UniProtKB/TrEMBL annotation:
It comes from Variovorax gossypii. Gene3D superfamilies: P-loop containing nucleotide triphosphate hydrolases. InterPro entries: AAA+_ATPase (IPR003593), ABC_transporter-like_ATP-bd (IPR003439), ABC_transporter-like_CS (IPR017871), BCAA_Transport_ATP-bd_LivF (IPR052156), P-loop_NTPase (IPR027417). The keyword Membrane applies. GO terms for biological process: L-amino acid transport. One of its GO terms (molecular function) is ATP binding. This is ABC transporter ATP-binding protein. Residues 5-235 form the ABC transporter domain.
Length: 235
């Protein structure tokens, strides 16, 4: 089976700063994989490098068997990748529904979710469809940021700290969303600081430190790895 995402020896820079030092990672179709690590470990940079949003990149990043090193960001996105950055990118001057409809559907990657399907998954957004972006709560903005990707047809989702700073009830709703998307066959790579949120959702884990992968293990190994995670992450 061709991996949904395969990274080999990835190095990345921001200007003169060498941030990633030989990252290797494999994500199979339909998997939920979580990148763990302390702030500054290189997790967000890894997602940005996948999308071609860092400076120079070296190594290999294959998406469904296609090499993307050297591709511009818009072409990478058209391979069926959706990136939800930590800052969410909601346009304050647009309504919830206008924000939802803003990105175009990706050609050649299959049909995205309909607006009706999205509102069924996120009832809060249906209720707030005519509200301006600035009037949405942090949780509603996060739901909208993810929903916008689902409408495009992307099947590989890169989610950066989607639970950060949100009320427990919203975090629970996002966990249900991840479970639903996994059941629908989406492939998900999450960067998460909230270990309690990520632990029951992921099939596999990678731990980063100083721009390198220092641990990798499956969900079945999680309990045995807790002493290591406590040392590395303080969980």
């Amino acid at each position: 089976m061709t991996a949904a995402l395969e990274i080999k020896g990835l190095q990345a820079w921001y200007g003169e700063s060498h941030v990633l030092h030989g990252v290797d990672m494999v994500v199979q179709p339909g998997e939920v994989v979580t990148l763990l690590g302390r702030n500054g470990a290189g997790r967000t940079t890894t997602l940005r490098a996948i999308m071609g949003l860092t400076g120079a990149r070296k190594g290999s990043i294959e998406v469904n068997g296609r090499e993307t090193i050297g591709m511009p960001t818009h072409r990478i996105a058209h391979l069926g990748i959706g990136y939800c950055p930590e800052e969410r990118g909601i346009f304050a001057s647009l309504s919830c529904e206008e924000n939802l409809m803003l990105p175009p559907e990706l050609k050649g990657v299959g049909q995205g979710m309909s607006v009706e399907e999205i509102y069924a998954m996120f009832p809060n957004l249906a209720e707030r469809r005519h509200s301006q972006g600035t009037r949405l709560s942090g949780g509603e903005q996060q739901m909208l940021a993810v929903a916008r990707i689902l409408r495009t047809g992307a099947r590989l989702l890169l989610l950066d700290e989607i639970s950060e700073g949100l009320a427990p009830v919203i975090v629970q709703a996002l966990a249900r969303m991840i479970t639903t998307l996994r059941a629908k066959g989406y492939t998900i790579v999450m960067v998460e600081q909230n270990f309690r949120f990520a632990a029951p959702l992921a099939d596999r884990f990678y731990v980063m430190e100083h721009g390198r992968i220092v641990e990798k293990f499956g969900a079945s190994e999680l309990e045995a790895k807790m002493p290591v995670l406590t040392e590395l992450l303080g969980v």
